Amino acid sequence: MFSVAQQSGGGGSPVFLIMLVLVFAAMYFLMIRPQQKRRREMQQMQTTLATGAEVVTIGGLYGTVVAMDDETVTLEIAPGVHTRYARPAVARVITPEAGAAGTDVPPATESTTTTTSSAVVDRGDAKD
Questions:
Q1: Owning domain of residue 39
Q2: What is the CATH number of the domain that holds 65?
Q3: 34 & 71 share domain
Q4: Do residues 77 and 63 lie in contact, with contact meaning Cβ atoms separated by under 8 Å?
């Protein structure tokens, strides 16, 4: 007389093994592979970074690349104001570097005109 425990205890179910493989395959295609692609694109952008490109840092600071070395990038964030950042801190390039072949976007023009407007608000609390 054989019991149910003796019959099922001998080996693993092939369905369980297939399900386990499918879960790992789904994790690879949904999580790992897209992350590797984003990392490759970020490294490509940072290695092709050139002087004159307008960039945004991971902190949201806009600036123009004025100098670079292997580990740092110097950005001009305002006329005459230069700040130094680690190269991985550059999140994206806004405009291509000046003089790049095959770019349709013209280089940004220097425009420092700022318009400010002030309005007088009548709150109605003034006494006549």
A1: 14-47
A2: 2.30.30
A3: no
A4: yes
